[in-house]
Amino acid sequence: MTRSSQPIWAGQTEGRFFTRIEVTTMLNGAMLSVPLHVVTGRNPGPVFGIVTNTHGDEFLPTIAIRRFINELDTAKLSGRLVIVSVANPMATANFGRQTPEQHGRTDLHEVYPGNPRGNTTQMIAAAITDKVLHHVDALIDFHSGGSGGRLQARVDYNSKTPDELKHKNLALARAFGAPFVHENEFAGAAAHYLNSRGIPAVNPEVGGAYLGPEHTRLYTEMMISGLAGMMRHLGMLDGAVKPPRQLHFDLRARREIRPKNSGYLVSHFERPEDLGKLIKGGAALGEVIDLYSYKVLEELTAPCDGYLFFSRYSGAVGGGTQAFALAEAAASRWLDERHLTK
Ligand SMILES: [Zn+2]
C-alpha cells in the first residue's frame, strides 16, 4: 500500500508521545485539533490505530484505553499503538453524538474519508484520514453507549468486503473476545474506508456511560482484555488468543425493538448477565410509561426467538429509539475455531 507522506510518529523510539493534529480555527478563536497518542514498542511490528469518540458522547473507552496504555510495558510491545482519543472534539464539547454545525453530514461516522474543503465534520475526517488512517496496518473505531445507559458487548465488522479481507476482519473482531460478532453496514465509517484500501478494521461497541461503578468496572475490564487480545492476534504482544463462545449474526438476523411512543422505559433487562440470553418470541422486554398521564403507553415484546445483544436501562426514551435488539436465533450461528485464522 502506498503511504501518502511520512507519519507524524516517524523516528519515534520506544516510549510515549502526545501531540495534536490541527484541523481548522473555530469561531471562539481556538484551534480545532484532534489529539493523537503514540506508544512505540521496543521491537518492530505493526501500527495499530484506535479511534474513539467518533460519536462525541461515548466516553467509556477513554478510561479503558488510558488505563491500558498506562499499564502497557513498551519493552514487551512489538510495533506501535496510535490513538485518537477524541475524534470529534466539537461533538464531545456539546455532550452529543454529532458536530454542532449549520450543515448536513454532521455525523463523523458517515463522512470518511472526509474532505479538507468540506464542512467541519468532513475536515476532521480528512485530517484523521491523512495523518492516521493512511499509516496504520489495522484499526478499531471504538464505540460505546452515550447518555442513555445500555448493555452491549460486541464487535461489528463490515459486510461489504472481499472474502479474504472479511476473514481478516472477522479474526480481528473475534480476538476482542466479546460474546457477539456482528456483520454490519459501514458506509462512510473510518473502518469502511480502510477496508476499501485492503486494511483490516472493525468496530467494538461495548457498554456505555453513566452505568454505575459495578457495570463500569466490568465493561472497562472487558475493553482492556479485548485490546490485549487484538494486539496478541496482531503479534504485538505475546500470548495466545482464546475467545469465549461467540454468536455471529448479520443484518438479516438483527431485530430491533423500537417504541412508537416517547416516555419512561421500564426495562426488564438491566444486568450484564442478561446479554446473550435466549429470549422467547412474545416475551415481555419492557414497557413505556407516559411522563404526563402515568399511563402505560406501550408494552414491548420480543418479535421472535432471539439472543439479547442490546438492552437499554430504564429511563426516558424518544419514540423510535432502539430500546432492545435481538439476534434472531434461527438466522444466527455459533462460531468455532475455524474462524480464528489470521
Ligand atoms: Zn458510536
Q: Number of folding domains?
A: 2
Rounded mean pLDDT is 95
Strand order of the largest sheet: 1-2-4-3-5-9-7-8-10-19
Structural class comes to: alpha+beta
Bound small molecules, deduplicated: zinc ion
- CATH architecture call of the largest domain: 3-Layer(aba) Sandwich
What gross morphology would you assign? globular
Give an overview in words.
It is a single chain. With 342 residues, the protein is α+β, with helices and mostly antiparallel strands. It has 2 domains: 15-244, Aminopeptidase (3-Layer(aba) Sandwich), CATH 3.40.630; 255-333, RNA polymerase II/Efflux pump adaptor protein, barrel-sandwich hybrid domain (OB fold (Dihydrolipoamide Acetyltransferase, E2P), Beta Barrel), CATH 2.40.50. Helix content is 20%, strand content 32%. It contains 6 helices and 19 strands. The chain has helices at 60-71, 89-93, 120-131, 163-175, 190-196, 213-233, and strands at 15-25, 31-40, 43-52, 78-84, 138-145, 150-151, 153-158, 180-184, 201-208, 247-249, 254-257, 263-267, 278-279, 284-289, 296-301, 306-312, 315-317, 324-328, 333-334. The strands form 3 sheets. Strands 1-2-4-3-5-9-7-8-10-19 form a 10-stranded mixed beta sheet, sandwiched between helices. Helix 4 (163-175) links the parallel strand 7 (153-158) and strand 8. Helix 1 packs across helix 6 (213-233) and helix 4 packs across helix 6 (213-233). The two termini are 19 Å apart. The model has no long low-confidence stretch (mean pLDDT 95). Zinc ion is lined by residues 55, 58, 143. Zinc ion (ZN) binds next to loops.
